[in-house]
Design a protein that fits this description.
This protein is mainly α and 49 residues long. The longest helix has 47 residues.
């Protein structure tokens, strides 16, 4: 039983690590998109001013 419990614990730890990596990647994409939108906004505002 102990090895079964250890196996589940290892799988869960691997899944958590995978989810954390995926989450950080998504946050990075969101911040990147916000920066790009901010730059586009500044260009539009400056060109009409």
């Amino acid at each position: 039983m102990s090895s079964n419990k250890d196996l589940r614990r290892a799988k869960r730890a691997a899944y958590e690590a995978k989810q954390e990596k995926k989450g950080k990647e998504i946050v990075g994409w969101i911040f990147g998109a916000l920066v790009v939108l901010a730059i586009i906004y500044l260009i539009v505002i400056v060109s009409f001013a």
